[in-house]
Design a protein that fits this description.
With 374 residues, this protein is of the alpha+beta class. It has nine helices and 13 strands. The protein starts with a helix and ends in an 11-residue tail after the last strand. The strands form two sheets. Strands 7, 8, 9, 10, 11, 12 and 13 form a seven-stranded mixed sheet that branches. The protein is globular, with a radius of gyration of 21 Å. The chain folds into two domains: 140 residues, Nuclear Transport Factor 2, Chain: A (Roll), CATH 3.10.450; 189 residues, Nuclear Transport Factor 2, Chain: A, CATH 3.10.450.
């Protein structure tokens, strides 16, 4: 029996990504390693293009083939979770509903009219890992006579679940053609400030501010994370499931980074949580334990964690939603860069409150622990 178990473990290791030979013992496999882009980017792009082509053909089966289930979509500011493929085919969320007679606040809400067609505008790869790729896609919609109706700007989290790449979550912003070009400066400023304040809370030991004023109330969506092999340090509100992250940087110094790149047997990388003022007030954050992790990186001691550092930017913004590529950069007491984490945030404005409602594909662009020789 033990021999069979050992053989099964060996087979699983062969199917899951192997640690790069140059990966340092206390480091995260960052964007220098081909495991994070060589296969992932072509696969994710293929999936997204199949999704868009199916949408252009008004092919619901093709759209469903492009998705993982359960699947989540932000429709305007509301997160919608579709549990099963058959549920999607019975009644898709508005952004992918193919009804040509849409009505708002109905079971056939959507954005189509008879004879309209879509044109590809552009796609961008935002960040990538062996298990998750974030992309943005824009397309235009015209009526049957060629008049511009709408533009759709979306972000898509494509994940590798059990060796199959598909869209795990998405968010779209539809804008009437005549409303294009409006600059929502207040949306942009608030979207950036939320991430700044989240990191600032760690700098000033403000436990209540870590997530309290940051997260949106109601359903929150995380996409891109591997199921956490064991509970992370800190409270539930600081865990992988809550953040919707990927490799938690603070686990890497303990040599656990590769555990988060597991693909075999992982059927979903979607997390769904219901956030209230009460849930945000639960749990404790041990700031001393958090800072004690830093010397283990081999780069230096705690100094700064700054949200929204380069290459962060607002990708799309509207009157009530923003898609933002941002994260956290960490520095030693002397100001030397240690590592960064980047994600796509879906930020919504609901009932007078701005908050982060979705976090897609948290990953590491550069980890200087990989440059340390001891």
């Amino acid at each position: 029996m033990k021999k069979k178990t050992a053989e099964a473990g060996k087979a699983e290791r062969q199917r899951n990504p192997s640690a790069p030979a140059q990966l340092r013992p206390h480091a995260i496999p960052d964007a220098r390693f081909a495991m994070n882009f060589e296969a992932a980017i072509p696969e994710a792009t293929r999936v997204l293009m199949h999704y868009f082509a199916s949408l252009c053909r008004r092919d619901p089966t093709g759209v469903a083939d492009s998705l993982h289930f359960p699947f989540a979509s932000f429709e305007r500011t509301e997160p919608v979770v579709v549990k099963r493929r058959q549920d999607l085919l019975k009644g898709a969320p508005p952004s992918i509903n193919l009804s040509e007679r849409p009505e708002r606040f109905s079971d056939h809400d959507g954005y189509l009219e008879p004879g309209c067609y879509d044109t590809f505008e552009g796609v961008e790869i935002l960040n990538a890992s062996a298990i998750c790729v974030n992309l943005s896609l824009s397309y235009n919609r015209y009526d049957r006579t060629g008049h511009h109706l709408l533009r759709c700007d979306g972000v898509y989290c494509v994940t590798n679940n059990n060796r199959r790449w598909a869209i795990q979550a998405m968010s779209t912003i539809f804008t009437p053609a005549l409303a294009l070009g409006i600059e929502y400066r207040d949306t942009i400023d608030k979207a950036r400030r939320l991430r700044f304040d989240h990191c600032l809370a760690y700098m000033v030991n403000d436990e209540a501010a870590v997530w309290g004023p940051i997260r949106q109330y109601g359903i929150n969506i995380g996409a891109g994370a591997a199921p956490n092999p064991r509970p992370a340090r800190g409270s539930a509100r600081d865990s992988a499931n809550f953040s919707g992250g990927g490799v938690l940087w603070r686990e890497a110094p303990d040599g656990r980074a590769m555990e988060f790149f597991r693909t075999e047997g992982v059927t979903s990388r979607l997390s769904v949580s219901h956030v209230t003022p009460e849930t945000l007030a639960q749990g404790r954050i041990d700031f001393n334990a958090y800072r004690a992790v830093w010397p283990k990186t081999g780069v230096g001691h705690w100094g700064w964690v700054i949200g929204g550092a380069s290459p962060a930017r607002v990708i799309h913004a509207s009157v009530d939603k923003a898609h933002v590529f941002q994260g956290a950069a960490r520095f030693t007491t002397a100001g030397a860069f240690i590592n960064d984490s980047l994600e796509v945030d879906v930020i919504t404005y609901r009932k007078g409150r701005w908050g982060i409602a979705g976090i897609f594909g948290y990953g590491t662009r550069q980890d200087r622990s990989n440059d340390m020789t001891n």
